[in-house]
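Q: I'm writing a short methods note and want an example of a predicted protein-small molecule complex. Could you take the sequence and the SMILES for nicotinamide-adenine-dinucleotide and return the bound structure as tokens? Please keep the output block clean; save any remarks for afterwards.
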Amino acid sequence: MRNILVTGGAGYIGSVLVPLLLNRGYNVRVLDNLMYGGRALLPCFAHKEFEFMRGDVRKIEDLRTAIEGMDAIYHLAAIVGFPACKKFPKLAEEVNQESTILLEGLRHDRPMFYASTGSNYGAIVGDVCTEETPLNPLTIYGTTKTEAEKYLLNRGNVVAYRYATAFGVAPRLRLDLLINDFAYQAVKNRNLIIYEKTFKRTFIHVRDIAKSLVYALENFNTMRDEVYNVGSNDMNFSKEDVALMIKRRIEYYLHFAEIGKDEDQRNYEVTYEKINKAGFQTTISIDEGIDELLKVMDVIDVVNEYSNV
Ligand SMILES: NC(=O)c1ccc[n+]([C@@H]2O[C@H](COP(=O)([O-])OP(=O)(O)OC[C@H]3O[C@@H](n4cnc5c(N)ncnc54)[C@H](O)[C@@H]3O)[C@@H](O)[C@H]2O)c1
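A: Understood, no commentary inside the block.
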């Protein structure tokens, strides 16, 4: 498998995955409608093996052109995160769910790698989620990703990864992700108010996500037709834990509000034994990720540019 299509390759994860694939000698074609711009991919254009196609995964003719000559597909294109999906519910359904079905109908025997999400678990308290835990998505984002994942797993010839919440610096930097957002607010506003501080989440660095996707490509035969939680057993933390990790590094006003509710009600812990048994381990800690985020905040001026909403 040398020729690789990445849908949504200009996004937060894609902007780290695509250079990694190019550096490993793959020929990479990105299909993306550039809803957040394309600057994150600029360095890739210097590679002869890189090809960019501006298009829409909702259009069957764009998908057909994009998969021509490709050996495998990373399907990352999506409306990502609960605020963006809440704001554009119809678009979320079309992009996250219906386009996945369209793409599935065209790919024939080509392996697919699907970026699913731990959001599918919703709120599961008192138990640690394994891949067998019944899914309980709480949002349109979770529902559309769950449906697409189910569809692909039924069809087979796929590896589906349920990711922890990503963090860390990438060429397209998202600031709506919990750790990235806390670091941004601590540096820029010197102020962070946290609701439901005990809510637990699980995290993975964006470079580890990219590495796990390459790992699946290179170990497809042993990993195929399964879903894996992807993250680290050492990185299940509460919101309070994360805020305090940042506070150990920089001074800012931190308030844990007793009254009030976070719109994002996700609260779950996850085990990553299955992916570890398959041979993949994450390498980057939250502490390292926070250090790099704090360093980068000085060069970021405009928050909206990096928003997913
Ligand atoms: N970042 C995370 O924490 C996380 C966690 C779990 C799963 N995921 C999944 O990983 C994938 C990538 O997420 P991300 O964080 O890079 O998000 P992102 O929003 O940065 O990237 C999504 C990309 O998809 C593109 N896109 C959107 N609609 C499109 C359309 N109609 N046609 C073509 N391209 C389109 C966007 O332009 C963007 O480049 C998504 O499928 C997401 O559900 C992300």
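A: Remarks, as requested: The mean pLDDT is 92. Residues 168-201+234-270+283-306 form a domain with the UDP-galactose 4-epimerase; domain 1 fold (CATH 3.90.25.10).
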